[in-house]
Each structure stands twice: as structure tokens, then as C-alpha cells.
């Protein structure tokens, strides 16, 4: 091929590409064409994503609060369980001491037939400086200075008191409670006001819900034992007894004989109780 022919062919190819390029570009599919982005839609999507993130953060905060509250309730339950185990261990040791004492008495030699049998001793109501009480007793509460029937319950951690028309209010920046106390033996009503020591949550036996109850401190006398103790307040009108005496009153102070009733009438003190364990 001559040199002139070579340059003529190259020129014709260049001219053909120049005219065919626009035609080929017009035939490209639409999805290959790059459009200018819609910034307003992008901003709206960013705002929606930010709102969703804020909602997730709020839900996370609520979940954390719920977990903290559950953690506190679990710790409180574990603490009460530990106290109950210690109480059970202490009662077991007390009963073992009593069993050993009975064995010692049974091992003593019996009196001979020539000697007259001694008179039976009077019933023992105080054992090792501890007041013996029955399953049901009358207790003296001060304030308000009344005697009420009570059930003795070694399974209850804290004592409980019947409180009708319970009303919580504030006095000098501290929570107080006002309630009506009813004596079921004579239906006498006594209005009582007391400062709230603390609040507790009590799980209901028939539901999974919990009830927030105020706790007050009152003087209580059973037999010759006079002390100050905490009482949870609730409406016990459906119960047989307005007062329930729990382990916070019995522990280290009394022994319970469930076969007896009303064997420790309260010796009403001349003055209000000062400290736990006075006699």
C-alpha cells in the first residue's frame, strides 16, 4: 500500500467516528445516564433517620431505667431471703438447745416409790429470759395506747397493723400518714397520725402486682416485753386480727408456743417504750 493510500484511509476513519459518536450516545440506555441528585429528598431522609435514632435512644434510656429498678428489687429480695435464712438458723439453734435441756431432764433419776411425788411446777412462761407467747395474744400499742388482739406469725418478716382510710401527707418536709384504727372487740375507732419511717413494696399472693405500703414505728408490749418496732400499714378489715406480730418483734425476745393462746397479757408500761428489749 502506498503512503498516500494509508493517510487517506486514516482520514476517512476519523471523519466517520466524528459523525457516528453522537448517534451512538443517543442510543445509550437511560439507567446509564447520571442525573443530578435531589438534595431536598436526601435531607428529608437524613432527618427521618435522625428521628428514628432519637426514638431508639429514648427507648434505650427507658429500658435502662427498667433494668435498674429490677436490679434494686432483686437485691432487696436477696437481702430479705438472707435475713430469713439467718432467722431460721437461729430458731433451729434455739430449738436444739431446748431439746438438749429436755433430754437432760429426762435423764435424771426418778423419785423412789417411798417418797411422795412432788407437786407439778407452775407453767413456765419465761424461758432463758425470753417471753413465751401463744399463737394469739393481746398486745398494747403506744401510741395510741390501746390493747388489740394479734396473731403471732413467725413466718412474717415485719409486723403489720390494720389502717383504715389511710392518707399520706407531708409535715415539715417529711412524709406522714393519717389512718383510722378499729378495735374489732368493741368497734372503737381511734384516729392516729405518725411519721413514715420508710416505704416497702409487698408482692400480692394472688397477682404479680406489688403494693407500696408505708412503715411506721410504734411502741408494742407483749407480756412483760416492751419495745419499739416497725409496722407496715394496710387495710386488714378482711382479716381476723387487726395486728400481725412478725419476727422483727419476736427475734431474740420471745418463744412461740403454737398450742397456747393468750398466755402473755400485756403489762402496760407507765411510760412509752424507749429502745428495744426493755422489761
UniProtKB/TrEMBL annotation:
InterPro entries noted in UniProt: Asp_endopeptidase (IPR008503), Peptidase_aspartic_dom_sf (IPR021109)
Residues of the Retropepsin-like aspartic endopeptidase domain: 132-266
Keyword set includes Coiled coil: yes
Pfam families the record matches: Zn_protease
Top-level taxon: Bacteria
SUPFAM superfamilies with a match to the protein in the record: Acid proteases
This protein's record includes keyword Zinc-finger: no
Keywords: Coiled coil
Gene3D superfamilies linked to this entry: Acid Proteases (2.40.70.10)
Coiled coil: 39-73
Name of this chain's protein: Uncharacterized conserved protein
Amino acid at each position: 500500500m502506498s503512503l498516500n493510500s494509508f493517510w487517506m484511509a486514516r482520514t476517512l476513519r476519523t471523519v466517520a467516528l466524528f459523525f457516528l459518536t453522537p448517534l451512538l450516545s443517543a442510543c445509550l440506555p437511560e439507567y446509564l445516564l447520571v442525573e443530578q441528585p435531589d438534595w431536598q429528598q436526601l435531607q428529608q431522609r437524613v432527618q427521618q433517620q435522625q428521628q428514628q435514632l432519637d426514638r431508639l435512644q429514648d427507648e434505650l434510656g427507658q429500658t435502662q431505667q427498667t433494668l435498674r429498678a429490677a436490679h434494686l428489687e432483686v437485691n432487696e429480695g436477696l437481702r430479705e431471703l438472707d435475713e430469713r435464712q439467718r432467722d431460721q438458723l437461729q430458731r433451729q439453734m434455739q430449738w436444739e438447745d431446748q431439746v438438749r435441756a429436755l433430754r437432760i431432764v429426762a435423764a435424771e433419776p426418778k423419785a423412789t416409790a417411798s417418797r411422795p411425788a412432788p407437786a407439778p411446777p407452775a407453767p413456765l412462761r419465761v424461758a432463758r429470759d425470753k417471753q413465751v407467747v401463744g399463737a394469739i395474744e393481746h398486745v398494747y400499742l403506744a401510741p395510741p395506747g390501746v390493747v388489740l388482739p394479734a396473731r403471732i406469725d413467725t413466718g412474717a418478716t415485719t409486723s403489720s397493723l390494720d389502717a383504715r382510710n389511710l392518707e399520706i401527707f407531708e409535715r415539715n418536709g417529711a412524709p406522714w400518714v393519717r389512718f383510722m384504727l378499729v378495735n374489732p372487740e368493741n368497734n372503737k375507732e381511734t384516729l392516729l397520725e405518725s411519721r413514715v419511717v420508710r416505704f416497702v413494696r409487698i408482692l400480692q399472693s394472688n397477682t404479680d402486682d406489688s403494693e407500696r405500703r408505708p412503715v411506721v414505728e410504734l411502741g408494742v408490749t407483749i407480756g412483760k416485753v416492751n419495745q419499739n418496732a416497725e409496722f407496715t400499714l394496710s387495710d386488714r378489715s378482711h382479716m381476723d386480727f387487726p395486728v400481725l406480730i412478725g419476727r422483727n418483734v419476736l427475734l431474740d425476745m420471745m418463744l412461740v408456743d403454737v398450742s397456747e393462746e393468750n398466755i402473755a397479757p400485756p403489762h402496760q408500761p407507765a411510760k412509752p417504750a424507749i429502745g428495744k428489749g426493755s422489761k
